[in-house]
Amino acid sequence: MTGTLVDWIWLAPALALLGFVLNGTLAFVRPNAKTLVSVIGAGMLLAAFAVAVVVFRAFMGLHPEEPIVFRYWQWIPVDTLQVDFAFQVDQLSLVMLMVVTGVGSLIHVFSIGYMKEDPGYARYFAYLNLFVFFMLVLVLGASFPVMFVGWEGVGLCSYLLIGFWYSEAANATAGRKAFIMNRIGDFGFMVAMFMIFWATGSLDFTTVFTHAPNVLTPGGGTITAITLLLFLGCTGKSAQIPLYTWLPDAMAGPTPVSALIHAATMVTAGVYLVARCNLLFALAPVSSAVVAGVGALTALFAATIALKQWDIKRVLAYSTVSQLGYMFLAVGTGAMAGGIFHLATHAFFKALLFLGSGSVIFAMHRAYHHTHAHDDAQDMRNMGGLRRYMPWTAVLMWIATLAIAGIPPLAGFFSKDEILTAAHARGHIAWVWLIFWAFGLIAALLTAFYMTRLMLYTFHGPNRTGEEAREHLHEAPWIMTGPLVALGLLTVLGGLLNVPALYHGGEWLHHWLEPVTQPGAALLPEYHLSTGSEWLLVGIAVATAAIGIVGAWRLLEPERLVPARNAPEERGFARVLRNKWYIDEIYDALIVRPLTWFSREVLWKRLDQQAIDGAAVNGAARGARALGWANRWLQTGQVGTYVAIFVIGVLLILWRALG
Amino acid sequence: MLLSPALAISAVLFTLGVAGVLFRRNAIVIFMCVELMLNAVNLTFVALAQNIGVGGQVFVFFVMAVAAAEAAVGLAIILAVYRHKQSVSLQNMNLLRDG
């Protein structure tokens, strides 16, 4: 307890939980009370955001070097394992708190318009509130187990919301896929927790980070295993190679869910975890290099797939995977502030892109609904020229596109540039980082290209929606465009959070996070680039983005696209990209099918049917029968024989007792 | 009454009873041998009651009472068997035998 307004931190998750309870109840008793549900759902989030702002201001007044820990109750007291349910307020968790509640509020407001016609309206808002509650537990938790509660909780909500329209089998399957892929990652997280407890004797962040440098050899096997297992958890939650395949399928959920959970907040939990454990990763250079390498590779790989997707949400999904790769490149490099900076700016512009695509899909869907057409409302081949019908969405999405491509002075430029510069700077120590930097640079080129492609096919060129449906294309209502405008402002101004010293900026976020990132940063080698080479890197990055945008603008011809119904199959390499490098098929052939084969042929037919049912169950019965058959000569029916045996028995007992 | 001879007689009577149950075929004779064993035990009770206490003597009455009831039930069974099988030989009473 600090005696300041920071003490009210518990109110933020509590409000979200209250929203869940109220809306969950309404979903059963008054599913059609949509006004009430909206007021509760969005209102609780706005209130939580207000709490976050108040706490943030109070915390700025204190600006302590140590995290403020609030212990609420004893949770797991077992001998030396003592886990309290405790929240931790520090610079990092507050940044996350602001992003989650701020972007979350805007998306809740947007949802009011987007989900208006849906029969599951109350259920939707209940899940969304529950998600925010768990996300806040995740970022506020003061120990690994409390964080894990949030970590699992957001996974549950993600599953519930991906399969929100569960009456279609594909959606339910996508939800299960997400859940199972995450479970593989969670296995890593849990084993890492066990090892942390075994090595340091505690699970509290503060204690673990105090003890770790004393009990763990830097670069040793234990710390490397712990960090790699933690990172396995991150690859699941944050959709990195090899566990990223669930995220594109997660687009089966409502679009605001994709914006909130699968772009802005939940998927960044892995980045937050690495940043939170920056000390552990600094102690394990090999793991850090793995994190950065996997991040760089994912950034490039996902970007190539995004080049050839037709579903507007799938392009954005692969873009998210790619951008998350950048964040891991940053935190793997040791540029924790850079990673968190990109996390925040990405939350702004990717939420804007997703909500913008939601507004497009909303318009397309409505148009097709009016004309009773059954075309795909998410396929870009059915769009085109939409800027004439929805100018606000078009302009705002262009801002976000330029931001994600890295055009100055928008938010994405500063954060992406900081990451690439950090990777390049580390290249002076080991050459492998230069490869990561090159991956990041090529990914930036592709990002600019596929995002321009998306904009070009959606908003420019002739319209392909169909003569009749075209009449019904309109801009979304203000309750949806309002949040878009707010996110547009954040996208433009977000870069101010951390303007680098190169432009005489204050690097506010960098200094703000220093109390959290300092322990890890102190262990890393110092490296500095000259001002000249920094300017050169900036020039390269901007030129790359410009080439990507102009290249896409010149090469692609939206005039030649035909609606999805009549479109020909791609050929050659384009087809490989269209089919996502056949990764799902490869996983199916390498893992799923051998596993089902092994389960069916060995576990079921051999082990279960033959060994357990055959040998153990029926074998026991057969054994008993054989024993009875062998001994049935004892049953003569002659009382005399029984008595004889009885007497022999008595004599034997007497002999044993007396002898 | 001396203790050792009494116990010896009791043992002899009991063994005779056991032997009778084991080797005779006639249900009535076997029945009488069972009574013989019971009375051998009674004799032991009475003999030991001299040294240990009156409890043994009291117990003998219980045994006699139970033996009387048992005799009634046992003889009734034997009569029933005889009506059914026209024989009281135990060799013919083997319905419980497997197969």
Explain this structure:
- The complex is a heterodimer of chains A (659) and B (99).
- Chain A is mainly alpha-helical and 659 residues long.
- Chain A has 25 helices and 2 strands.
- Chain A has helices at residues 11-29, 34-62, 91-114, 121-140, 144-162, 169-200, 205-215, 221-237, 246-249, 255-264, 269-276, 278-283, 285-306, 312-333, 336-371, 391-405, 411-426, 432-459, 467-470, 478-493, 508-521, 531-555, 572-578, 583-631, 639-658, and strands at 68-78, 81-89.
- In chain A, strands 1-2 form a two-stranded antiparallel sheet.
- In chain A, a hairpin with a 2-residue loop joins strand 1 and strand 2.
- Chain A is globular.
- By secondary structure, chain B is an all-alpha fold.
- Chain B has helices at residues 3-23, 27-52, 55-85.
- Chain B has one domain: Helix Hairpins, CATH 1.10.287.
- Chain B contains 3 helices and no strands.
- Chain B is elongated, with a radius of gyration of 17 Å.
Keywords:
heterodimer; A: mainly alpha; two-stranded antiparallel sheet; globular; B: 99 residues; mainly alpha; Helix Hairpins; elongated
Multimeric state: heterodimer
Average per-residue pLDDT of chain B, rounded, comes to 87
Mean pLDDT of chain A: 91
CATH fold name of chain B, please?
A: Helix Hairpins
Short overview:
The complex is a heterodimer of chains A (659) and B (99). Chain A has 659 residues and is mainly alpha-helical.
